[in-house]
Amino acid sequence: MDFLDQPRAVREGEALDWAAIETFLKDSIPGLAGPLAAKQYPSGFSNLTYLISVGGRELVLRRPPFGTKAKSAHDMRREYRILRALKPVFPYCPEPLAYGDDAAVMDCPFYVMERLPGIILRANPPQGFALEEAQAARLCENLVAVWAQLHRVDYRAIGLADLGKPEGYVARQVEGWSGRYRNARTDDAPDFEAVMAWLRERQPPDSPAPALIHNDYKFDNLVLDPAEPEKIIGVLDWEMATIGDPLMDLGGSLAYWVDRDDPEDMQLLRQSPTHLPGMLTRRAVLDRYAALTGRTVEPFAFYYCFGLFRLAVIAQQIYYRFYHGQTKDARFQMLIFAVKILEQTARQVIDRAG
Predict the structure, then answer these.
(1) Tally of helices (H runs) and strands (E runs) in the chain
(2) Taking a C-beta distance cutoff of 8 angstroms, is the pair 9, 39 a contact?
(3) pLDDT score, position 69
(4) pLDDT of 103 higher than 80
């Protein structure tokens, strides 16, 4: 049975100028020949991702979403640059192939990369696909190992020292995401003021060992080997990568990690099968990371609470586009409920932290 991640027909209103793109690709990538066919990957709430087939070769094109975009988000040139610099030292990156910003081809910058065929886990595994408990545990261990490997990359040596400013990183993140939430808040959304105040008051000092961080490292951005599904062969979606505190990377990602004994409302938000037998808990992921890196991960309440808040902001920004009629994607309508659940969960983390 085929468990590979598969695209679907292009969504209404999100078709591109395929003739212009075909010309661009054949001019930019040597050896391409034959007619172009396009489909679209249905998952994800941010950048749009298309599978482009030209002859027998499969490519992936990424572009920003249609409609109003967050000020600093969706920087295609930056994402392309990260992949070009990182690929030689971190083999899990897809190979970037071409970058374009010609308005005659597309109304926005975009880039094209190789396709990494494999299994991508989302809320529930593909039908008929099963991980044994031991496989699930090894997969989680490999997830942490690849994460730690990324955080060990010498970002200065590969020319990415200017990708971010680690000094004051945590403070800027708290301030920046607070501002984004206030700008995107709709009348039906919670105000989050108590959570934002707690984050301002409890923020830790700068990390003594900043790292290149992915900022969206989770199962649906990992490509698994179809022959050995506990093995990770690719890491996707680098749009939020930067230089910063690696514990902020952990906090942001573990906000998505729903343990099997988490409350029912959090189970509703689960986007990955982290509830399956054998999957590590958030606590076990932290312990594994600490063991591999030698970093201190306590106290983690701040980083986890920030991750929950950041996830709520991302959901609210997307919901804002739906609320104001900037997108017709029906998936976005339900995100307001996620925002409310995340606010409640963040408050619970604060209460437990004292």
Answers:
(1) 10, 9
(2) yes
(3) 54
(4) yes
Give backbone dihedrals phi and psi of 287, rounded to 5 degrees, phi first: -65, -40
Same domain for 184 and 264, yes or no, is yes
The pLDDT assigned to 42 comes to: 86
**Cα–Cα dist 255/46, whole Å:** 18
List Cβ neighbours of 141 (8 Å cut-off, separation of 6 or more): 280, 288
C-alpha torsion sign, points 91, 83, 3, 59: negative
Parent domain of 30: 18-114
Between CA 135 and CA 223 the distance in angstroms is 15
Question: For the chain, what is the domain count?
Answer: 2
- Whichever domain contains 61, its CATH number is 3.30.200.20
Confidence label for 45 from pLDDT (cuts 50, 70 and 90): low
Report DSSP state, residue 175.
H
- Which among 150, 206, 152, 147 is positioned nearest to 174, based on CA atoms? 206
Radius of gyration of the chain (CA): 20
